[in-house]
Design a protein that fits this description.
Elements (H helix, E strand, L loop, with lengths): L10 H7 L4 H17 L9 E5 L5 H9 L8 E3 L6 E6 L4 E7 L15 H10 L2 H4 E5 L13 E3 L6 E3 L3 E4 L2 E4 H8 L1
Length: about 180
């Protein structure tokens, strides 16, 4: 997809994701909206949390721009199928929910399918208020990540986080093994 010269802040997002697409642009603009609303930079540790209500390309923008990642435990996925994101700033005790409302900007090509190129251009140029509903919300931040000991699964022998084991017949097992034994 060629949209001409890209904004400097978008280039590392595209490099992180691997390609430029409308989904990534939704995330890019949503992360910008959240950052602006809360006056944010990147999360060095777990001071920011993103709750993503989808598992699409858009989430990668939050990982790259705000440094909210699964690995640090400050990216949470809720399988709601919505292009909506709640960003929590633990230090300021504030949160915003940014939800995409720009579907009406999708252009249809002569074949009736979405013209991804035209839609992407709209996503880059449209005013924020025509793309997103941004509202401050009261959200209890999730607990910070805890490093806990591992327990060896009695069935497969793989180390498993203690809180993620299941006891069956007096043996501690990982969830997949416990599900297989119970089936």
């Amino acid at each position: 997809m060629d949209l001409g010269p890209l904004p400097e802040q978008l280039k590392p997002v595209v490099a992180f994701h691997g390609h430029l697409c409308p989904g990534l642009l939704i995330g890019y603009r949503a992360a910008q909206a959240a950052s602006q609303a809360l006056d944010l930079g990147k999360s060095e540790d777990e001071e920011l949390v993103t709750i993503a209500e989808n598992n699409s390309c858009s989430v990668d923008a939050f990982q790259q721009m705000l440094s909210t990642t699964f690995g640090k435990g400050n990216l949470i996925w809720r399988d709601f199928g919505k292009q909506a994101f709640t960003v929590i700033d633990r230090q300021k005790n504030r949160a915003v929910r940014v939800s995409f409302i720009g579907d009406r900007l999708k252009h249809k090509g002569p074949d009736g399918n979405v013209d991804r190129q035209a839609f992407a251009k709209e996503l880059l140029s449209a005013p924020q208020e025509s793309l997103f509903k941004v509202e401050e919300v009261a959200v209890e931040p999730p607990p910070e990540a805890v490093i806990e000991k591992s327990i060896t699964c009695a069935r497969c022998g793989e180390p498993t986080q203690a809180s993620r084991t299941v006891e069956l017949d007096g043996k501690l097992m990982c969830r997949p093994c416990a599900a297989e034994v119970s089936a």
